[in-house]
Amino acid sequence: MLVFLVRHSLPCMFVFAILGFLLPTVSLAFFPFLPIVLFTLMSLTLLGMKQNELIKRLSSCQIWLYAVLHSAVCMGVVSVIGWWLSFAADLLLAVVAVAATGSLFATPAIVRALGFDSMQAMAMTIATTLVLPISIFIALVFFQTQSVALDWTSYFVRLVVFIFGPMLFSFLVHQFVPRDGLNRFLMAISPYTILLVFAFPFGLVGSFRILFDQDPMMALNYFVIATSLCLLFFVLSYFVYRKKGKAIALTAAITSGNRNVLLTYSIAGVLLGPAFLPLAGALQIPTYLLPVFTRWLNKTLLK
């Protein structure tokens, strides 16, 4: 069974999003455990990476230019589109906040499953997470009228726990654990780390099901908007990077399409308005359909 799930991991991510929608009570009950899964996934992913190489990637100007595209450029594009479509103020704030959001911590595992450079995806993910508080602050200043009071303490605690914590853990393990034993351990577990990704679509989509039960038409509208946002981020990044080669373009596209909306909500909370959480829930289904679409697109581009 485990071998089957690993072999078909990309479509299984989408299946687990559907299961979370069909089983909202179980999904909501699983939600509080997601931070533990997140830390475990980051730690295991970083263990398989050379820390010196990761820091070298983060020192590259190209990574930070990508972070600008991921946040600032996407924020500008969706704000113009939202204004053109006459979005309500709460909805406009929500879509701009999604555009400001960094990439999912699960992205490197997804990129590795696609056969691309997970180190590049990890560097992109960390860079977009580091610029997140600035992007969210800008979004709140321009798109909401309440006093802006970000929970900086919560943000930096989560940053230490989910970024620097796993990096430090990985560094210490590489320093003190015999390399041969560590390599055998990583080879044994690496195929199964992708299974941890299944927890995110399953645990996050429950909130969208609650909205669907209360107002199906509004839920449908949010689903259409969420799907459009995922496609916009994906297509925009792909065409910006297409001249650098298929692998880099698709890595940038999938990294841009995946958004860590849970972390964004933990920073800004209710300041994001009532439309953000329903939109975040609606994002789960198209987000975890993107890897399947990317694999198909990758095969198509080979022809």
Automatic annotation (TrEMBL):
InterPro entries: Na+/solute_symporter_sf. Signal peptide: none annotated. It comes from the Bacteria. Keywords: Membrane, Transmembrane, Transmembrane helix. This is Bile acid:sodium symporter. Coiled coil: none annotated. The chain crosses the membrane at residues 14-42, 63-85, 91-111, 123-143, 155-173, 185-208, 220-241, 262-285.
